[in-house]
Design brief:
Blueprint lengths: L10 E7 L6 E6 L1 E5 L19 E2 L6 E2 L7 E5 H6 L15 E6 L2 E6 L2 E2 L11 E5 L2 E2 L15 E6 L13 E6 L8 E10 L5 E12 L4 E12 L3 E3 L4 E3 L2 E15 L2 E14 L5 E7 L23 E16 L3 E19 L8 E20 L5 E16 L2 E5 L15 E5 L2 E16 L4 E17 L1 E2 L2 E2 L5 E19 L2 E12 L16 E15 L2 E20 L6 E23 L2 E16 L3 E6 L5 E6 L12 E13 L2 E12 L2 E2 L7 E2 L2 E11 L5 E8 L7 E6 L3 E6 L4 E9 L1
Parallel strand pairs: 10-13
Antiparallel strand pairs: 1-2, 2-3, 4-5, 6-12, 7-8, 8-9, 10-11, 12-13, 14-15, 14-48, 15-16, 16-19, 17-18, 19-20, 20-22, 21-47, 22-23, 23-24, 24-25, 24-26, 25-28, 26-27, 28-29, 29-32, 30-31, 32-33, 33-34, 34-35, 35-36, 36-37, 37-40, 38-39, 40-41, 41-44, 42-43, 44-45, 45-48, 46-47
Length: 739
């Protein structure tokens, strides 16, 4: 196996096994090299109490987490499992400053108050998501089941250079294991129990092996099911169920000591009716109609249709790496094809006032080429090119509405207004980027980077099957973004840094409307200072303070006719705050992870914000008002995370316990701050027993142990303000076999 230089570090020689990585890093002085993995049965010397070194790829190269001038939280697979984190949206509970939101099937992550509200294809989130270096552009199918991952890295702040595309607020970087030449694997099963006699099942398997001396393969599979647990009180049915099937396989070819190829294929299918909403505070236009049935509490519903969120996703990628004397060349070629279907009840009652039905299809291709320096020289650099193409369509979107609510409104369902939209949109984008870090002195490092993007977007719309007169329109957007950072090593285990950078998301067409004019691009300028230190062998503390200037925010909300959406630019916003993270090892058996985030985000200028004013008869009056001074949506001011991990040896086996606590301040879901989620706390936990052979592990686990009533989404429209809750308390058992 060839040697790969990873990062500079001036500490004494030691061996450190990174759990789950499959390799041992031998470190001596300034260079660390990969050596052979010890056999599973080989005993290794027990290391003294100390913090685990974490290597991340947050800057597109492997670097020590504590040495990069970026705020990053890296969560390992072990922590994710113990915390009950099964998808990217649930990272809210373990990542400071992160909120995993959704609107129906659209996943809308928010980092430090930056997040997209778009609900149409082609409107990519402004928090970018990557899996093994591959950009994931489709918010409708990015539930991202975390199937056999090494770690998840979440970068805060705009990443406008080496990642660039739509990383205005930051990015989620999911790293899965590459195939190993050593045969190993695991099989796990979890069974849980929800309220209303509903069960939850989670089955996972992973295996990897070498086929020849230079070819290895792996396979990861997952099946997850939640039975129907939300009573539909008007008919006696139940909703809320979900079935997810996910398969992934990689083939690794080490053609030589200097050439490496990894081919990945992934297939995911979801069938669900999790979007079983209910009126918030009985606010629905159907409230006064005869025969209406309204829920009495959370986790109940009463609908006029069977809700639906279904999708299928297929993706494939080829990653290569070629090593030369002074630099490496890496390439990533990717393809994705998604189809989906969503059915939603616009008034969230058994009265048929409004329904929204639409299929969608998204296809994307991308190509990235990067050259990056190697060796121990004072200047480390990366330069690259990125090409991206997306073709997306929705529809026909079928909007079935009765007349808007109001005095003298006719009986429900008479007459019915059927209105269809059939939008198509296409994006073609090219970008070049570079970034370099110069070691000015032994302790002072200067980073400069830039990216230039040129992008063309096209759009066409048909109403009730008839193409609109403007035909196919297009707009081109060009933008340069940059980043600079200065880092100073106070000691070998402490450094301070400051950075300033920009982020950018190009203009976008509102495909759930008839407008032929795109909204303006949104731009962010971000300043940050940070301090990272391991002052003691058992203590790690990271602190960051940030200030963002955010312009032309792209925001979306339902229109006053109930048949479409308004996509507009909020003029300006300001965001500032701070985060502190700490990892403490009081004993060899006990680990504490804690974080507190303060995030103040408000609209500075937003003169024509969509406003939803509850009506006495139910439903909302939709109008425009000035939202200046109001808090940003989906951006709580205070959040806190606390994780406690304890493990001890008992009769040659290991007994362990994990508790994860998350607190969130009030979360607003509309621009004028009329509708919100009260402050809440979530508690997840796990008790485990690992057999003496280290191959069999049993768990007793629970999620939402306090049975908190937490909004997964709150939507406003002319017919209703509705809410969908996160799952109630779930308790279960699990078992895992490793080999």
């Amino acid at each position: 196996m060839g040697k790969y230089k990873v990062f500079m570090m001036s500490t004494a020689s030691f061996y450190n096994i990174f759990l789950g990585s499959g390799v041992v890093y031998a470190q001596d002085g300034a260079e660390r090299t990969v050596v052979e993995t010890p056999p599973a049965t080989q005993e290794t010397e027990e290391s003294p109490r100390g913090l685990e070194e974490i290597v991340v790829t947050a800057t597109r190269r492997e670097e020590r987490l504590q040495d990069i001038p970026v705020t990053v939280t890296a969560i390992t697979n072990k922590t994710l499992n113990a915390a009950g984190i099964v998808d990217a949206r649930s990272l809210t509970q373990v990542i400071p400053g992160f909120t995993g939101n959704r609107t129906a099937s659209v996943i809308q992550p928010v980092i430090r108050g930056i997040g997209s509200g778009g609900v149409s294809v082609g409107d990519e989130p402004n928090v970018a998501t990557y899996i093994d270096g591959v950009y994931q552009p489709d918010a409708f199918s990015n539930s991202l089941e975390l199937v056999e991952v090494e770690r998840v890295e979440v970068l805060r702040g705009p990443q406008g250079t080496v990642f660039g595309r739509n990383a205005t607020g930051g990015l989620i970087n999911v790293i899965t294991p590459d195939p190993s030449f050593v045969t190993e694997g695991r099989i796990s099963a979890r069974v849980g129990r929800l309220r209303n006699d509903a069960n939850e099942y989670d089955l996972r398997a992973y295996v990897t092996t070498g086929l020849t001396d230079n070819i290895a393969v792996d396979f990861a599979g997952m099946y997850r099911q939640t039975e129907q647990y939300i009573p539909e009180i008007s008919t006696g049915r139940k909703f809320g169920g979900i079935k997810v099937f996910d398969l992934r396989s990689k083939i690794l070819l080490e053609a030589s000591d200097t050439a490496r190829f990894i081919l990945t294929a992934n297939y995911t299918r979801q069938r669900s009716n999790v979007n079983a909403t209910q009126p918030l505070d009985d606010n629905t236009a159907a409230r006064g109609f005869e025969g209406v049935i309204l829920p009495d509490g959370p986790w109940e519903t009463s609908l006029s249709l069977t809700p639906r969120i279904d999708y299928e996703r297929f993706s494939a990628s080829l990653r290569t790496r070629f090593e030369f004397e002074h630099f490496d060349i890496e390439t990533t070629t990717a393809f994705m094809h998604n189809t989906g279907r969503q059915d939603a009840d616009a008034d969230s009652t058994n009265i048929d006032l409004g329904q929204i039905l639409f299929p969608l299809e998204v296809q994307a291709e991308s190509q990235e080429i990067r050259a990056l320096s190697t060796g121990d020289g004072p200047f480390q650099w990366i330069v690259g090119f990125y090409a991206f193409h997306l073709d997306a369509s929705m529809g026909p979107i079928e909007l079935i509405n009765s007349p808007p609510p109001g005095p003298g409104s006719p009986a429900p369902g008479t007459p019915i207004v059927r209105f269809t939209l059939s939008p198509e949109t296409e994006t073609l984008s090219f970008a070049g980027f570079t970034e370099g870090t110069l070691r000015v002195t032994d302790r002072l490092f200067l980073t400069l980077g830039g990216r230039y993007t040129t992008e063309k977007k096209e759009f066409q719309q048909a109403v009730n099957g008839n193409p609109l007169p403007y035909g196919r329109v297009d707009e081109r957007f060009n933008k340069a973004t940059y980043r600079t950072a200065l880092r100073y090593e106070l000691t070998d285990s402490a450094n301070i840094y400051g950075s300033f950078g920009t982020g950018y998301k190009s203009g976008v067409y509102n495909v759930v409307s008839t407008s032929s004019t795109p909204v303006n691009p949104e731009v962010i300028e971000a300043a940050e200072i940070g301090f990272k230190a391991d002052p003691l062998p058992w203590l790690r503390t990271n602190l960051s303070l940030f200030h963002y200037w955010y312009s032309d925010l792209q925001v979306q909300a339902r229109s006053e006719d109930g048949n479409s959406y308004v996509l507009q630019n909020a003029a300006d916003a300001k965001i500032y705050g701070g985060e502190i993270e700490a990892t403490i090892l009081p004993t060899d058996e006990f680990t504490i992870r804690a974080a507190v985030t303060y995030n103040h985000g408000e609209y500075v200028e937003f003169p024509a914000a969509q406003d939803f004013i509850p009506l006495p008869v139910g439903g909302n009056l939709v109008t425009s008002n000035d939202a200046a001074g109001k808090s940003l949506i989906r951006a709580p001011e205070f959040t806190a995370n606390l994780g406690l991990d304890w493990a001890t040896m008992v009769q040659d086996g290991e007994f362990g316990a994990t508790v994860n606590f998350f607190f969130s301040d009030r979360v607003y879901y509309d621009f004028l701050n009329r509708f919100s989620q009260d402050p809440y706390a979530l508690v997840n936990g796990e008790i485990s027993w690992t057999m003496p052979n280290d191959r069999v592990r049993f768990t007793l686990w629970g999620t939402n142990l306090s049975n908190a009533k937490v909004a997964q989404q709150i939507r406003q429209g002319v017919f209703a303000t509705d809410i969908l809750y996160e799952k109630p308390r779930t308790i279960g058992i699990g078992a895992e076999l490793s080999f």
